[in-house]
Design a protein that fits this description.
88 residues, mainly alpha
Length: 88
């Protein structure tokens, strides 16, 4: 086990667990922030695993796809939270 894998192992409970908790509980804005931060930390986790396992192509591709689709998911979720035109 090298330092990259140790950092990934620390990031899962220390970083992703609070994000998942925030994404599952509380008001809609807090859930949105939790989901957005979880996608960013998952992207970092994939990059750490790519370095730790020495398999740059597979995990790096996943991190790049998540980096592109994460903000798109945030925009879709924000659109669903927005009130309809004409609503108070």
């Amino acid at each position: 086990m090298n330092a990259w894998l140790v950092a990934a192992a620390v990031l899962i409970p220390g970083g992703l667990a609070p994000c998942v908790w925030a994404a599952c509980r509380g008001p809609a804005v807090r859930r949105l922030v939790g989901a957005n931060l979880a996608s960013v930390l998952t992207c970092v986790l994939f990059l750490l695993l790519a370095q730790g396992f020495g398999r740059s192509s597979s995990y790096t591709d996943l991190a790049l796809v998540l980096a592109v689709l994460g903000p798109v998911g945030t925009l879709v979720f924000t659109r669903l939270l927005a009130p309809e035109p004409g609503e108070g």
